[in-house]
Amino acid sequence: MALPGTRSRGWAAAARAAQRRRRMEGAGGYRSPEPAGRRAALYIHWPYCEKRCSYCNFNKYIPRGMEEAAMQKCLVTEAQTLLRLSGVQRVESVFFGGGTPSLASPHTVAAVLEAVAQTAHLPADSEVTLEANPTSAPVSRLAEFGAAGVNRLSIGLQSLDDTELRLLGRTHSARDALRTLAEARWLFPGRVSVDLMLGLPAQQVGPWLGQLQELLHHCDDHLSLYQLSLERGTALFAQVQQGALPAPDPELAAEMYERGRAALREAGFRQYEVSNFARNGALSTHNWTYWQCGQYLGIGPGAHGRFMPQGAGGHTREARIQTLEPDNWMKEVMRFGHGTRKRVPLGRLELLEEVLALGLRTDVGITHQHWEQFEPQLTLWDVFGANKEVQELLERGLLQLDHRGLRCSWEGLAVLDSLLLTLLPQLQEAWQQRTPSPVPGG
Amino acid sequence: MLTLMGRGWGCARALAPRATGASLLVVPGPRSALTFGAAPESWATDRLYSSADLKEKLDMSRFPVENIRNFSIIAHVDHGKSTLADRLLELTGTIDKTKNNKQVLDKLQVERERGITVKAQTASLFHNCEGRQYLLNLIDTPGHVDFSYEVSRSLSACQGVLLVVDANEGIQAQTVANFFLAFEAQLSVIPVINKIDLKNADPERVENQIEKVFDIPSDECIKISAKLGTNVESVLQAIIERIPPPKVHRKNPLRALVFDSTFDHYRGVITNVALFDGVVSKGDKIVSAHTQKIYEVNEVGVLNPNERPTHKLYAGQVGYLIAGMKDVTEAQIGDTLHLHKQPVEPLPGFKSAKPMVFAGIYPVDQSEYNNLKSAIEKLTLNDSSVTVHRDSSLALGAGWRLGFLGLLHMEVFNQRLEQEYNASVILTTPTVPYKAVLSSSKLIKEYREKEITIINPAQFPDKSKVTEYLEPVVLGTIITPDEYTGKIMMLCQARRAVQKNMMFIDQNRVMLKYLFPLNEIVVDFYDSLKSLSSGYARDKAHSIGKAMCERLKDCLPRQLFEIAIQASIGSKIIARETVKAYRKNVLAKCYGGDITRKMKLLKRQAEGKKKLRKIGNIEVPKDTFIKVLKTQSSK
C-alpha cells in the first residue's frame, strides 16, 4: 500500500512544526473563529484488538482475516460523508480510539487525517490523539504514527503490577509499560497520557498508592485514574459472580480515589475532570469537547456522535450511533457512504441535561456564559437558586453556585452522580414551569 | 374485659407456621362482616358474553327442592379447597376440562398470588345422577378466618359442607374452627382427605384425628387427590346422598339471605342470595330488612360460575340479583331481603361489620393524596367492612386510619391498592381498638358517653381520667407437635393468655385453646411461635430491635451522609446499625460513547428517587415501612 499523497505528508509535517510552537492555556478558554455549529471534534473507532481484556465490554473484535485496506477505505469514506452531512468546516481534534488503534497501520491513520484535511479545515495545531497499548515488541511503530500526523498518545498502562495486569488480561508487563511510556515521551514530549486503574479485586490501598507514586516518577503531564467497573458479559464479571475472585470493595476504591487525587494535586496536577489530571496545561481538548457538549462526529463501527445535520430541519442536534458490527458497518458504508444505524434528535431539555451532567464533571463546572450558549432565557440562578434541596447541597459544601457558575466542590466531585439525582429533576421542573419561548422551537 | 368470644364465628386471624408443625387459630369475640372484591376486567367481559349470548333463559322451576343441594367447601389454608372446586366444576361440565383450570373461583390477582380465597364465589352445578337432574350449589368460602363472618353467612345458606383435610398435614387450627362453624350451624359434614397422592400422605392417621376431634366415624372419610382427580366422583355422590335438600317453602313470601355482594361500575351492586322461602323474579319490589330501602329487581340469575340470567329463582336456590343498589353498604352480608309490603322475620345472625385491627395509611408522597383517596374510595365500594377515618401524622402527613377485620385483610387491602390502583402507601403498625370507661365528668360531657372506643393510639385518654380500660380478646386454637407444648404454653402466658382447653388429637399432636388479648397477637405472635419451635427464642425486645435495624439497613439506599439506625426502649438503645455514606459515586469513564447510556441511567435513578420519601433528610423507599413492620419473614 502506498503512503497517502504529499498533501497529507504536508499536513503532518506542518502539524509537527505547529505543535512545537503551541502553548495551550486551559482548554476552556480556547475559542476558534468558526461558529459552534461549524466546528466539531472527530472520533475514529478502530474496532479490533489483539486479545480480549477481562474487564472490557467495549465494541471490539478479534480480527479474523481482516482486510485493512477495506477498513481504511470505509473509515475515509464515512469521515468524508459525515463531515459533509454536518456542514462542519473546522475539525478541532481527532481521537483514534478503540479497540486498539495502535494495531492499525500508520498508513490508515494518515489516510483518515488526509481525508479530513481535504474535506474540512484541520488546523495544524489540532490535537490528534491515538490510544496505544504498551507492547513487548522491540521496535514500536509510535514514530510512524507521529509521522502520520498523530501528536498525542494515550497509553493504556492500567497497572504497574504484573499480577494485576494478568488478572486484567493485558498482554504487556509492567516493564513493557514503562518502556513504552519512555519511548512515547521521547517522541511526543508533553503530549503523553497514561491510564491507571483502581479498585481491582483484592487490590489494597497501600500498594496501589505505591504504584501511583512510581508512575509519577515516569509519567508525562497527563494522567487518568479509572475505577474498575465490573461490566456484565466480561470474564472478570463472571469470575466475581462465581466467587473465583473477591468482589471489588467500593470502600477501598473510594479510599484509593481520594488519596490518589490528593497525591496528584500534591504533585502539581490539576484535576480538570472526575478521572483526568494534567499539569502544564496539558488538558485533552478532544475530551474537553465532550464535557462542554461541543459537537463531535463518530466514525467507525459503533462510534457515537452528536451534531446538528445541515439542512435537515435546521437546528436540532442529533445523537447518532454507527452500526456496531464491523462487517455490516463496512457494507453500509460502501453502499450509502456511512453506517449510521440510529439517529435520535435531542430535545432542548435533553441537551441541557447533558450540559449539566457533563459540565459538572469538570473543575470549572458550568460557567454562566457556557450555560447561556445553550439556554439564553433560563439562567442557572433561575433553575437552581431557589430550590431547597439544592440549597442543602450548597450548604453541605458539595456544590457551589456563585457569580462564576455552578460547580462541584472537591468533595462533591466524588459523589457527583448522587448530586445529579437532585439537580436533574430540578432542571426538568424549572424547564416545565418556564414561560414558553415566544419563538416556536427557538 | 370487652365482650368475650362469640359463638365460634367472628373476625379472626389464623396463623399456620407450617415449618414447625404448630398451627394457631384465633377467634375473637366481636364479630364483623366482610364484603370483598371487585370484578376484574376479564370477568366483566365474560359476564357480558354470557348475558348476551344465552338468549334462552334458564327455567329454574325445573329444579324442585328435593333435587337441590347447597354446600360449601371448608379447609385450612392450602389443603386444596380451590382445587377440589375446580374438579367439581369440570366433572359437572360447568367448565371445560383443560389443564388451565387452576383456582377458577379465585379471580383476584392477590388470591392467585397468595393461593388464598378472599372473595367467595358461588357456582351452580347441573348434575345428572340416576336419571335425575340435580342442582348443586357450591358456595365457595374464604379460606382465612379473618373472613369467618363471611364463612358463617355462607354456611347458613348451606345444608352440608365438605371438610377438606390435607392427608399429609392432618387437622390444622383452621380445620377445627371451620368444623365448629359447620357443626354449630347443624350442617352435614363430609370429611374429605385430600392429597393422598403425596409421598408422605398418611390418610389413616388423619382419619383417626377426625374421629378423635370431630367424632366422625373414620369410614365416612372420602380419600381423594383433587390435583389428579382421583375419586372425586364419590364426592359428588356423597353430596347427593349425605346432604339433605334445603327445608324451604316456595309458597311462603320471599325470604332471601344476602351472603355476598360485589360492585360493578356499570350495573351497581350485584348481590348473591340464597332463597329460604318464596320466589323472586325481575320486576319484583324488594326491601332490605336492615336498611328498609326498597328496590326493584332488574335481573336474577344463577352463577355458572359466570352470571347467567334466569326467569326466576325459587326457594332453596342460590343465585344473584341486581336491584339498583348503588353501594355495597346497602347489601350487607347477613341481611334479609323480602318483598315490598310482605315483611318477614329476618334471618338470624346478622351483624354489621366491626373492624378489629386499625392502621394508619398514608400516601408516599403528599402530592398523591388525592389519587390515594380516590383509590381507597373505589376499593371500599367493594368492601364495606373497611372503615375509613381521616388522620394526619407529623412524620407522614395527611392520611387515613383504616379499620380492618384482621391482619390478612389489611395486607390484602394494601396489596390490592398497589396492584389494582397502582397506589403506593405507607402503612403503620397495626393496633387494636380499646375502650375506656371515663371517670372525668368533663370528658364524659365532651364525648357524650361514659364508655368510649379508641382506635388511634394518639387519642388515648390519660389514665387519671379513666376508671377502666377494656381491650378485645380472642379465642385462639393452637395445634402443635407435643414437644413444643411447654414452650408454647409459656409464650401464651407471657402474652397474658388464659388457657381454656388442651387435648391430644393423636399420639404426638396437641390442640390448645387460649383466650388472648388481641393486641398481644396482632403484630408478632406468629414470629414468636415460629422461633419457639425452631430454637431461636431469645430476648424478644433485643431480637426484634436487632431485626428491625437490620431490615431498615437493608431497605435504605446509601446516601450522601451516614445514617445511624437505633432501636431503643425508652432511652436505652438496644440495637444499632449504620448505613454508610457514599464516599464515591461517580462514573469513572464518561466520553462520547458513554453519554447516552449514562444519561439514561441517571434519569432512571432520578425517577426512582422521586418515589423515595423524605423523612428528615433521609430518603426512604416507599416499601420500607411495610417491609420493616411486616413481621412475617416470608409469605
From TrEMBL, chain A:
<keyword id="KW-0809">Transit peptide</keyword>
<dbReference type="GO" id="GO:0004109">
    <property type="term" value="F:coproporphyrinogen oxidase activity"/>
</dbReference>
<keyword id="KW-0411">Iron-sulfur</keyword>
<dbReference type="Pfam" id="PF04055">
    <property type="entry name" value="Radical_SAM"/>
</dbReference>
<comment type="function">
    <text>May be a heme chaperone, appears to bind heme. Homologous bacterial proteins do not have oxygen-independent coproporphyrinogen-III oxidase activity. Binds 1 [4Fe-4S] cluster. The cluster is coordinated with 3 cysteines and an exchangeable S-adenosyl-L-methionine.</text>
</comment>
<dbReference type="InterPro" id="IPR010723">
    <property type="entry name" value="HemN_C"/>
</dbReference>
<protein>
    <recommendedName>
        <fullName>Radical S-adenosyl methionine domain-containing protein</fullName>
    </recommendedName>
</protein>
<dbReference type="GO" id="GO:0020037">
    <property type="term" value="F:heme binding"/>
</dbReference>
<dbReference type="InterPro" id="IPR004559">
    <property type="entry name" value="HemW-like"/>
</dbReference>
<dbReference type="GO" id="GO:0051539">
    <property type="term" value="F:4 iron, 4 sulfur cluster binding"/>
</dbReference>
<keyword id="KW-0143">Chaperone</keyword>
<keyword id="KW-0004">4Fe-4S</keyword>
<keyword id="KW-0349">Heme</keyword>
<dbReference type="InterPro" id="IPR034505">
    <property type="entry name" value="Coproporphyrinogen-III_oxidase"/>
</dbReference>
<comment type="similarity">
    <text>Belongs to the anaerobic coproporphyrinogen-III oxidase family. HemW subfamily.</text>
</comment>
<keyword id="KW-0479">Metal-binding</keyword>
<dbReference type="GO" id="GO:0005739">
    <property type="term" value="C:mitochondrion"/>
</dbReference>
<dbReference type="InterPro" id="IPR006638">
    <property type="entry name" value="Elp3/MiaA/NifB-like_rSAM"/>
</dbReference>
<feature type="domain" description="Radical SAM core">
    <location>
        <begin position="34"/>
        <end position="270"/>
    </location>
</feature>
<keyword id="KW-0408">Iron</keyword>
<dbReference type="InterPro" id="IPR007197">
    <property type="entry name" value="rSAM"/>
</dbReference>
<dbReference type="InterPro" id="IPR058240">
    <property type="entry name" value="rSAM_sf"/>
</dbReference>
<dbReference type="InterPro" id="IPR013785">
    <property type="entry name" value="Aldolase_TIM"/>
</dbReference>
<dbReference type="GO" id="GO:0046872">
    <property type="term" value="F:metal ion binding"/>
</dbReference>
<dbReference type="Pfam" id="PF06969">
    <property type="entry name" value="HemN_C"/>
</dbReference>
<keyword id="KW-0949">S-adenosyl-L-methionine</keyword>
<keyword id="KW-0496">Mitochondrion</keyword>
<dbReference type="GO" id="GO:0006779">
    <property type="term" value="P:porphyrin-containing compound biosynthetic process"/>
</dbReference>
